[in-house]
C-alpha cells in the first residue's frame, strides 16, 4: 500500500494550522477587547442574579473576579507596638527619668588650627591660672549636689556598734521594758512590726527607771507605763545619734538590778521584737539561726554581746611613746616585702628597668625553671 498521499495530506494540514497557532500564541489588542466584553457581559448577568437572591442592596462587589477589595493590613501586635516609633536617642528611659545629676557626655575640644580660623582673636593659654577646672568622672559622685536626699541610705540599725556585754545588757533591759509596756497597753500587735522612736538620753533614763517584777515566770512593770508606750508610738522624729552609756555607767547600773529579769521567757514574736529593738539601739544583729534556739532574755544577751578581741602586738607597740621617738624604728602590722623596702628608698624603679632590659621577669618566675643559670652555662640557651 502506498502511503505517500497520506503523508502529503498531513503535511498540508500542518501548513494550514501553523498560522493559526502562531496567531493564537501572540494575543492581539482585539483579543483583549473580546475578553473584556465578555467580562462586562458576565457582570450584567451577575447583577440580575444578585437582584433575585438579595432583597435590596447586595453585599460585596458586583464582580468578585475583577473588583477584588484591597487586602487589609492585619497584625497580631498590640496597639502600643504598632504606634511605637524608634527614637534616634538610645539613652535608656531610666536614665532620662532619673533625678540624679549625671555626668555630662563626652565632648571633643576643637583643634587650635580651627579655632584660629574661626576666631582671629583666639590666643592660646600659656598658664593654668584662670582656666576652668573639669573634674574627672571618678570623683563625680563625691561632689556635693550629685546625690539627692532620696539616694541616701537610711539604715535601721545603729551605726555605732556596741560590743561590751554590760552596755548591751543596759539596752537589752530597755528593749524588754518597752516590750512589756506595749503588751500591757494593748497596742503590741499594732506596733510589733513598726519602727519605734529611739529617743535621747532622757528617754533611756526614764525607761530604765521602770522596775520589772518577776513572779511565777510572769513579768510585770512598776512605773509610768502609759507615758512610755505613748513615747514609743509617737511620730518618728529625725534626731542625731543619742548620747551613749559609758562602760563605767553601765557597770553601776547593772549592779542595781535583780538578775531574775534575765529568766523571762520569750515567745517567737517577743524574740523578734526584742532582737529588732536591740539591733536599732546597739547595731548588733542576732542571726535567725541562733535566735531560734534562744528561749529567755539571758540567751539573747549571750548571743548579742561579744567579747572584745585582744589587741595585736603591733597596736600595743604603736601606743608606746619611746618607740615613736626613735627615727630608725617603725612598727608594721604585717610583714614588709623586698619590693616595698626598695620602693621606700627609691631603688625599685631602677631595678625594674634593668630587669626589663635583660628580659627577666619583674615579679615571679614567668614560667622559667629553677636551673636557668645551668642552662646558660651549658649552652642549652
From TrEMBL:
Keywords: Mitochondrion, Ribonucleoprotein, Ribosomal protein. Its main location: mitochondrion. GO terms for cellular component: mitochondrion; ribonucleoprotein complex; ribosome. InterPro entries: Ribosomal_m50. Pfam families: Ribosomal_L50 (PF10501). It comes from the Eukaryota. Residues 51-78 are annotated as: Disordered. It is found in: Mitochondrion. Belongs to the mitochondrion-specific ribosomal protein mL50 family. This is Large ribosomal subunit protein mL50. It comes from Purpureocillium takamizusanense. The lineage of its organism: Eukaryota, Fungi, Dikarya, Ascomycota, Pezizomycotina.
Amino acid at each position: 500500500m502506498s502511503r505517500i498521499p497520506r503523508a502529503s495530506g498531513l503535511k498540508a494540514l500542518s501548513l494550514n494550522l501553523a498560522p493559526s497557532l502562531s496567531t493564537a500564541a501572540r494575543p492581539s489588542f482585539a483579543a483583549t477587547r473580546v475578553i473584556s466584553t465578555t467580562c462586562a457581559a458576565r457582570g450584567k448577568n451577575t447583577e440580575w442574579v444578585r437582584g433575585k437572591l438579595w432583597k435590596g442592596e447586595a453585599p460585596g462587589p458586583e464582580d468578585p473576579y475583577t473588583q477584588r477589595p484591597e487586602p487589609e493590613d492585619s497584625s497580631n501586635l498590640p496597639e502600643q507596638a504598632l504606634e511605637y516609633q524608634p527614637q534616634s536617642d538610645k539613652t535608656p528611659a531610666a536614665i532620662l527619668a532619673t533625678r540624679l545629676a549625671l555626668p555630662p557626655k563626652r565632648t571633643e575640644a576643637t583643634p587650635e588650627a580651627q579655632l584660629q580660623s574661626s576666631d582671629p582673636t583666639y590666643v592660646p593659654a600659656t598658664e593654668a591660672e584662670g582656666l576652668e577646672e573639669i573634674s574627672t568622672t571618678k570623683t563625680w559622685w563625691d561632689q556635693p549636689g550629685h546625690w539627692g536626699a532620696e539616694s541616701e541610705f537610711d539604715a535601721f540599725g545603729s551605726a555605732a556598734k556596741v560590743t561590751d556585754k554590760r552596755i548591751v545588757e543596759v539596752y537589752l533591759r530597755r528593749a524588754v521594758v518597752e516590750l512589756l509596756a506595749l503588751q500591757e497597753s494593748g497596742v503590741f500587735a499594732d506596733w510589733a512590726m513598726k519602727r519605734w522612736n529611739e529617743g535621747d538620753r532622757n528617754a533611756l533614763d526614764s525607761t530604765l527607771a521602770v522596775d520589772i517584777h518577776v513572779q511565777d515566770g510572769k513579768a510585770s512593770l512598776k512605773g509610768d507605763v502609759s507615758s512610755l508606750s505613748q513615747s514609743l508610738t509617737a511620730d518618728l522624729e529625725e534626731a542625731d545619734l543619742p548620747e551613749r552609756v559609758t562602760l563605767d555607767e553601765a557597770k553601776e547600773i547593772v549592779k542595781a538590778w535583780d538578775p531574775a529579769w534575765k529568766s523571762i521567757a520569750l515567745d517567737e514574736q517577743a524574740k523578734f521584737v526584742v532582737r529588732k529593738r536591740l539591733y536599732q539601739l546597739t547595731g548588733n544583729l542576732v542571726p535567725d539561726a541562733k535566735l531560734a534556739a534562744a528561749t529567755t532574755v539571758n540567751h539573747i544577751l549571750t548571743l548579742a554581746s561579744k567579747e572584745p578581741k585582744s589587741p595585736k602586738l603591733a597596736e600595743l607597740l604603736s601606743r608606746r611613746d619611746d618607740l615613736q621617738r626613735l627615727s630608725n624604728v617603725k612598727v608594721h602590722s604585717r610583714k614588709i616585702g623586698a619590693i616595698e623596702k626598695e620602693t621606700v628608698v627609691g631603688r625599685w624603679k631602677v631595678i625594674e628597668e634593668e630587669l626589663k632590659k635583660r628580659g627577666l621577669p619583674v615579679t615571679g618566675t614567668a614560667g622559667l625553671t629553677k636551673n636557668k643559670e645551668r642552662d646558660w652555662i651549658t649552652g642549652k640557651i
